[in-house]
Amino acid sequence: MDVAVFAGQGDAARSMALLWRAGTAPDGRPGPKPALTLDMIVDAAIAVADTQGMAALSMRAVGERLGRTAMALYTYVPGKGELLDLMYDQAFAELPTRYDLEAGWRAAVSAWARDLCELYLRHPWMLQVSQVRPVLGPNEYTMLDTLLRLLRVTGLGREPLRSLVGTLFHFVRGSAATIAESRQAEAATGVGDREWWLDRAGLLKEVAPDFADRFPQVVWLESEPAPPGPVEPGPYLEPAARRTFHAGLGLILDGAEAAG
């Protein structure tokens, strides 16, 4: 992914007020075009980032998508910093807030993790927003509260739950980043994953004929092919990355179950 972008760089008071919709949004001015709304601006900004990437995001680009000037947006959003916070929080509103616990907490948490992973893949620019400084918006808190509601069933105490939540977020985000990068690699380099691996695997045998002696554990691990999984759309590496995601998630939940 590209260089990390840090949330919370706009004016703190304005950002928090906009995130929580504290106060009344400005009315649109009379004219031939309908008034803008804050939600319209945020939706347009998300669309720009989805289609063109984070680097293309600007008040001007968002204004052009809405058929307005950048200046017209400043009545609603002070700047790009505040807009990024709003975009990031708004994207989380796509996640479900209820999961059926009838099949057990593991099935519910697995569904939550899959939904979060797919959210990141629909909006890969979210993976550039650092987790070091959360946005602290209502949808971000709703996502966290939803997960905690599912995990409380495990009986774990507060400290183990904090660790488990952090582990799940890092795992899902990292898995989504791998899948997103596998989708981007061919377009960015002009070389497909399969071609890249076949070329280098052949060269590895030439430059390291003693590879098996030097790295016996690696050879042992790779001596048995990975179990076949469902056919997934996307690049060559994506099915393997998805299998790793499901297997790794199972191991994390195994640990949570044993600790509960």
Per CATH, the architecture of the largest domain is Orthogonal Bundle
Tell me the helix content.
55-70%
- CATH homologous superfamily designation of the largest domain: Tetracycline Repressor, domain 2
Low-confidence stretches: 27-31, 230-234
Shape: flat
Strand content: under 5%
Strand and helix order: HHHHHHHHHHHH
For the record, the CATH class of the largest domain is Mainly Alpha
Number of domains: 2
Short précis:
With 260 residues, the chain is mainly α. 62% of the residues lie in helices and 0% in strands.
Explain what you see.
The protein has helices at 12-19, 38-52, 59-66, 70-73, 80-92, 105-122, 138-151, 158-189, 193-207, 211-214, 216-222, 238-259. It has twelve helices and no strands. It folds into two domains: 12-92, Arc Repressor Mutant, subunit A (Orthogonal Bundle); 105-259, Tetracycline Repressor, domain 2 (Orthogonal Bundle), CATH 1.10.357. Residues 27-31 and 230-234 have low confidence and may be disordered. The longest helix is centred in the last third of the chain and has 32 residues, at 158-189.
Helix-strand blueprint:
Elements lengths: L11 H8 L18 H15 L6 H8 L3 H4 L6 H13 L12 H18 L15 H14 L6 H32 L3 H15 L3 H4 L1 H7 L15 H22 L1
Q: Which short descriptors sum up this protein?
A:
260 residues, mainly alpha, Arc Repressor Mutant, subunit A, Tetracycline Repressor, domain 2, 2 domains, 0% strand
